[in-house]
């Protein structure tokens, strides 16, 4: 059995070196051809500007809690109400390792104040099943899972209670001096 196995291993090499033709039963089994990767065409319209960043939730896992704020635009009354409430609670957000990601249907979306690419915006909308006209506030825990979803502005105190009830947050509070 071993000689046959060794022959099967060296058969393609022998065939390539000698240009010999072997019987069908000795031919190596055909493998599905995998097309070689093609370089992408340069698409300047899709290339993010240096000030834009691609945002991926996985990059934040175990480091930050994320508040995703989905809104049609900055002119949306619900968006304005939510942002106004959060402005007064920046210290509480920072204490809980919260990063705000604004996912807007119209206008520039931002992660922690930095512009994100339209592709990242579309990916977040698709991932959470929301249209560009939707309003939602979604809390993502440090473990990367969705913890809370609201379809209307949420009071920071309500969000903080949800976070403070999490085992990871309680452990953080115990380890703080």
From TrEMBL:
Keyword Signal in record: yes
UniProtKB keywords: Signal
Entry protein name: DUF4174 domain-containing protein
Pfam families: DUF4174 (PF13778)
Source organism, top-level taxon: Bacteria
Stored InterPro entries: DUF4174
Annotated source species: Stenomitos frigidus ULC18
Keyword check for Signal: yes
Signal peptide interval: 1-22
Domain DUF4174, first and last residues per copy: 57-172
């Amino acid at each position: 059995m071993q000689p046959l196995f060794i022959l099967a291993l060296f058969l393609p090499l022998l065939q390539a070196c000698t240009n010999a033709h072997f019987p069908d039963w000795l031919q190596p089994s055909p493998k599905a051809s995998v097309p070689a990767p093609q370089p992408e065409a340069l698409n300047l319209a899709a290339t993010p500007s240096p000030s834009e960043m691609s945002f991926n939730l996985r990059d934040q896992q175990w480091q930050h809690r994320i508040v995703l704020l989905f809104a049609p635009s900055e002119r949306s009354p619900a968006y304005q109400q939510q942002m106004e409430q959060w402005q007064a609670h920046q210290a509480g957000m920072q204490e809980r390792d919260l990063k705000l990601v604004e996912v807007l249907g119209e206008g520039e979306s931002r992660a922690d104040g930095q512009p994100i690419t339209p592709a990242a915006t579309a990916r977040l909308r698709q991932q959470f099943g929301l249209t560009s006209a939707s309003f939602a506030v979604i809390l993502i825990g440090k473990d990367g899972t969705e913890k809370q979803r609201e379809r209307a502005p949420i009071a920071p105190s309500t969000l903080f209670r949800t976070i403070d009830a999490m085992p990871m947050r309680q452990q953080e509070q115990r380890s703080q001096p």
